[in-house]
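Figure 3 (text version): structure tokens given as input.
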């Protein structure tokens, strides 16, 4: 799995989230398991519900990755709003 492509995809979504005061961090890219893990950071966000809903956020991250990363992969989003 191309690390640079994954990072570029995460950066694309970061730009959208930063407008709401949130951030997205790349936690792990595991080529063996084809799993990409990212973490949503809501520190300093006044309205967590104003940030993209978890389902939509996951879809946006997956879509950004599919544009650049070849093959099948699993996306895991650590979102503090989801228990």
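Below: residues designed for each position.
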């Amino acid at each position: 799995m191309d690390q640079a492509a994954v990072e570029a995809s995460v950066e694309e979504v970061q730009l959208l989230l930063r407008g709401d005061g949130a951030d997205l961090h790349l936690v792990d890219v595991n080529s063996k398991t084809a799993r990409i893990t990212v973490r949503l950071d809501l520190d300093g966000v006044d309205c967590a519900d104003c940030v993209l809903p978890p389902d939509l956020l996951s879809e946006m991250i997956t879509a950004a990755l599919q544009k650049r990363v070849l093959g099948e992969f699993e996306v895991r989003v650590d979102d503090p709003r989801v228990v």
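Helices lie at 3-18, 54-68.
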